[in-house]
Amino acid sequence: MKKFQKEFEVHYYEVDFYQELTPLALLNFLEETAIAHSEAVGYGVTRLKEKGYGWVLSQWQIEMDQYPHYGEKVKIQTWPSHFQRFYGDREFLVLNSQDKVIARASSLWIFLNLEKRRPTRIPQEVSDAYHIFPDKALSFPFPELKMSQTREKKRSKFMIRRSDIDTNDHVNNAKYIEWVLETIPEEVYRTYRISSLEVVYKKESTYGQMIQSVTEEQQRVDQEAHYVHQILERDGEEEVALALAQTRWSKR
């Protein structure tokens, strides 16, 4: 059995000022491929929602070797590598028009009871619908994402809009990366590109909330930059983490 594959063309509204695919658009491509795979095996968004279930993303790990440009076509392969209780691991490869791998991603998803907003065991009929390929796209362990108490931090506030909400009635995972990128220094954003990205989603957020994106520079040298990020909400006197992230950047 072959791994599921979907082709995309890079549109004008998906590129930056260098005419390269944006990280946000890449995440949308990956998620769209995962959804299309689930539709193909008979357990897509609509059918699961009718049963009161949905998949929500818990973690991303992404490595980019090359970014496709405006008008180019890419193919994305995806496959589940492991199911356990209410967790599912899903892998991705991004290939250019010459079938060269230009990006890899591993992700962890949680099977959710939408009414109770709690994880629930994956039904046997759902897991049986997929073919498991045990090979991993990325094999390194997920990093510990911590900020220091002393380094300077960049902060920006955002109000969650209706357009940020997805079919699970919470903020779509890609929107968190949009907030992260808004706190990257402009000179870095224009002269470097993301080479790797790790995100862990801690708590869902919904329409109307005010959130804060916080970024701390860990390192910046001639060819590389490294940042850690938090997406926070205020709960009384405390700040609660909605998501933690790490980005590594390489000079263009």
UniProtKB/TrEMBL annotation:
CDD domains: 4HBT (cd00586). Belongs to the acyl-ACP thioesterase family. It comes from Desulfitobacterium metallireducens DSM 15288. This is Acyl-ACP thioesterase. The keyword RNA-binding does not apply. The keyword Transit peptide applies. One of its GO terms (molecular function) is fatty acyl-[ACP] hydrolase activity. Keywords: Fatty acid biosynthesis, Fatty acid metabolism, Hydrolase, Lipid biosynthesis, Lipid metabolism, Transit peptide. Pfam families: Acyl-ACP_TE (PF01643), Acyl-ACP_TE_C (PF20791). Residues 148-250 form the Acyl-ACP thioesterase-like C-terminal domain. Residues 2-130 form the Acyl-ACP thioesterase N-terminal hotdog domain.
